[in-house]
């Protein structure tokens, strides 16, 4: 993932907010990147641009050499599905679906995964997160840490190369935080690129590179 | 995303508090709409359909030079010209059918060949003192105790039960005054397509001649010296029986041209019906507007409520169309569930109303039909508004 000179301005009715400016960086597979900075420094904005959720920005953004800044919704959706896995601070699990069904959610739109394989794949991912016994539970019956690890499993559903996590441990205690970071680190070792936003200094233990944002700019 | 997966996802998510409240509100609304529509079509039927089916609407009353009444027979489409005397009925006390504390009564009318009633059981009248009665026969008054318009559905007699039964009548004819005669029921007719009261039986003109008074009425007049004398009011007008309802207008004109006064035997207050039609249509339109409003606001609210969920789907790689389809299918399913429950409720209410509540209609054989075609159009209308609301809201939020 290559971003160059990214600038993002939020235009509200009253004022312009420069959320990001002159942001240039290269993210490589197999590495763990930590994005740090104060609240409002542009971390989430950067992640949503990297995750192809936000398209209204200037600058160039290439994924594996392909310019994605000019793609339409359908093409971007494909990239999100195949290449990118998301984890949010607030878990965002579908309360109507069991844990393994939540993990299956991204597979429903992936024609490369056969219908019969979905369940097994989802269950394997949950096993990998050490939540074998929680497979058939609904989100309500899971603790915060468990929910976040289910989210991580869901982010991995379509075997993406990039994992984007926006304050994944923001609502978790230290024990669970460690578990999530450990999982993320494991994924790095498997060759994935992990980009995680965190306020916690814990993340420094796991990160290969630390990017600090201040007022929308990267500080060295 | 395959439709099967789409349906699976929607079905898993559909049961929640918001949706259930929507289904309840919407079901009530649609049921009221269906009932309202039934009333609209009933009013329309009253204006356009029932007069065609009611034999009385083929009868014209003419009044004029009695020596020229025979002339009227020569008018095209006229079947018979008879004294209006035969429009009167004979009331039979019908104590033969006494049951519990019910007031028994049978109305005996004159049968004209052009009535052409369909015989369901037994045979038609062939001899004197024979009658045919409704196939679903209720020889009781429409009141029980002090309550009017109350009837007991359980007391209806089946056609097969009443054939061979007899009942007595007393003559009102001046030549046979107070003499008793006995009628035998020889057959039953299909009263469904008539607006006859459920206790209306028919006998031949020959029998009626023995029973009906020769005069319209009696009165007294006083001489100038104070003594009184009786005057008898003759039947001085005739009924003209026309072959088809469609020809009544034409025949009435012809009668008028021959110099007679003419009026219809059955007077339909069209203004009243028109008012009823426009009122019920207005209520229906208001209901449709409320319905669209509810769907629109519900979808709008749900979209806000689902913002996080849709964002999650987006991050998983769902494109806008797929997210839209999930919403649309959920909305259509909710509408479908509401419609199905409404239909069931509607049929139950319809059944209870027509069988147990609307006694006046039941007694007079008034048919309140289920407007299947109207219901279908109504359902299509509801689906369309749901789809249009979904579509317009999703278009709005794209901008
Ligand atoms: N949708 C939005 N509209 C307007 N301003 C926004 C919006 N989202 C974020 N911002 C602004 O952009 C800046 C960066 O926000 P964000 O990326 O969420 O920061 P962080 O995640 O580091 O807290 C903040 O000043 C925030 O107020
Ligand atoms: Mg943030």
Short description:
The complex is a heterodimer of chains A (220) and B (399). With 220 residues, chain A is α/β, with parallel strands linked by helices. Chain A has helices at 43-50, 73-83, 99-104, 115-128, 144-155, 174-189; strands at 2-11, 16-26, 32-37, 58-63, 66-67, 84-87, 162-166, 193-197, 209-214, 217-219.
Q: Work out the helicity level of chain A.
A: 25-40%
In percent, how much strand structure appears in the residues of chain A?
25-35%
Mean pLDDT over the full residue set of chain A: 91
CATH structural architecture of chain A: 3-Layer(aba) Sandwich
Shape of chain A: globular
Q: How do the helices and strands follow one another from N- to C-terminus of chain B?
A: HHHEEEEEEEEHEEEHEEEHEHHHHH
Number of helices of chain A: 6
| Computed Rg of chain B | 31 Å
The whole-number mean of residue pLDDT values of chain B reads 89
For the record, give the distance between the C-alpha atoms at the N and C termini of chain A, rounded to a whole number: 20 Å
Oligomer: heterodimer
Descriptive report:
The complex is a heterodimer of chains A (about 220) and B (about 400). Chain A is an alpha/beta fold. Chain A has a single domain (about 1-220), classed as Rossmann fold (3-Layer(aba) Sandwich). Chain A has 6 helices and 10 strands. Chain A is globular and about 50 Å long. Helix content of chain B is about 45%, strand content about 20%. Chain B has 11 helices and 15 strands. The radius of gyration of chain B is 31 Å and the shape is elongated. Chain B starts with a helix and ends with a helix. Chains A and B meet through α2 of A and α1, α8 and α9 of B. Adenosine-5'-diphosphate binds next to β2 and α1 of chain A.
